[in-house]
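Hi all, long-time lurker, first post. I run a small reading group and we've been trying to get comfortable going from sequence to structure in the token notation. Rather than ask abstract questions, I figured I'd post a concrete chain and ask someone more experienced to write out its structure so we can walk through it together at our next meeting. Sequence below, copied exactly:
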Amino acid sequence: MYCYFAQKKDLYEIFAYAKDVDEEIFSIILQKFRKEKMQDILGYLSNDGNQRLLEQYILQGQNLTQVDKEQKLYFVRNNIEQLINALKKIKDHDFNKIDYSTEENQEYRQDLVKRIKDDMQIIEFLKYLVHLISIENNLIECESNSFNLLVEMKVDMKNKNFENIKIQNASLVGDNFCGCNLSKSQLFKLDISGINLNGALLINCKWNNLRILELNKLDGHKSPIASLCFSPDCKTLASGSYDGLISLWDVKTGQYIAKLNGHSNTAYAVSFSPDGTTFAGSQNNVICLWDIKSRKIKSKFEGHSGNVSSICFSPDCRTLASCSWDSSIRLWDVQTGQLKAYLNDHYDLVFSISISPDGTTLASGGGGLVGGGDFSIRLWDVKTGQQKAKLNGHSNTVYAVSFSPDGTTLASGSRDNSICVWDVQTGQQKAKLNGHTHYVQSVCFSSDGILASGSWDLSIRLWDVKTGQQKAKLDVHTHCVQSVCFSSDGTLASGSWDKSIRLWNVKLGEEIKPPCKNYLDISLQKNLQSDGFIYNITIPLISESLLLQAKGALIKGIYINHQEINLLELFNKKGSLILEDSLNITQNAIQK
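-- Answer (accepted) --
Happy to help. Here is the structure in token form:
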């Protein structure tokens, strides 16, 4: 660890020593320094003459006898000395030099929180530090560390005055700052997902490089979303809808890029080739292939006699697999457009296919359109076209199948409301995941093995396949979730019958116990240097109330997220009152 244990032990002793400073004296000193706009508090307090003036300021207006005055003076002087000594020790301590929110300091930070979380005097001292240092220019790291400790301990922050605070590298996911005065605050590299700013005062703030875990809600489709797929480089998301529209979106900005022409009916399936050069989309019984660079159709595959419900490329990009309501699966040569194999052992509609990461096995699932029929999952040898296994376990139509990243596990989602997890080698069912209360329409594995599922119960759920436990439930869509899809970097996209697409930052790392009931038990503990945000910080991933709240907040200043997107429009949609000149202020800041 960066700090030696002895040094860290000293920090607790500093807090314990300073906690004896009288709260009323804290308040008076803070009031004076704010009034005089003091910027070098330690420099001021280190001067004996200033100490005497401060003593007189604290004692003024008190009608005391000489004896009481002497006793009070001794008490005040002793408190000031304690405060000075504590601030000097903190200034020279690592607490004012390094970021204590990092992973390398996690063990000590958790131990420190455990020791002070029930000591209200130390908590009050930390609050005082945050307020005091907000007007001090030499203790900014200490201010951030103190604030982060308060946040981690879930100290009540409602209706507090946090004017002028300067905070960086912190997670405020789901925290409640309702009614707070955050005017003139400077926040940098913070996660504010699900934060409650209802009724807050945010005048002349500078908030930069912020992150909101629900990255964007992508609007543009006028019909329900049928299918989603990320490009291999994670920069583009393709969506297909029931109106036949196939759209390309910029994942970073959430902006619409282009429409791929060639469809007029439901785009049930979309897929990027693994090398990123080709895009495939289905419409009725036809599959179109586009060149990604030119965005022009380069070939069409025809042969199915029913709607093409699912398509996927082989890892070597040479083969495209498709399945259809005509009960068949077809394997196509991408280069020539010739049919390589015709698989027809299903005797009912085939809704979903998936090719294993090594390209040797294809899985398929299907059944009746409204239930009934063939509920089996079939495993096929891609090279020979022969069926390898038939998996039985669902009691109704199978709508979705997906291989795990290592190819050893297959997940299937069904109209029976369940998800089955299968051992690909043996064909045995390993687990059944229950929790959804309606049809499971889509399943998808992340690169680190977490399973996402989308359902007609309007929810998205994340699962630990090894334990069979549900890790999170995301209730944001207002209609059936038709499609879920992970990018290789861990971003999750969800498409719904509510005609929206939502992007979620659910790049999963080491699981930790959630700090309180306000969070579900999913957390991120990952080095995020690649996107210039929080470095090695453990933060809650998904809160029960993921959406930012800012009703009645009065806002003026600069509010920019880590993608350089102006957040004022978001605040406005949340019911905030935006002062007129804020738009110009923020626009100028972005341009600079």
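A couple of things your group might point at:
The first helix runs from residue 5 to 18.
Residues 1-6, 508-546, 582-592 have pLDDT under 50 and may be disordered.
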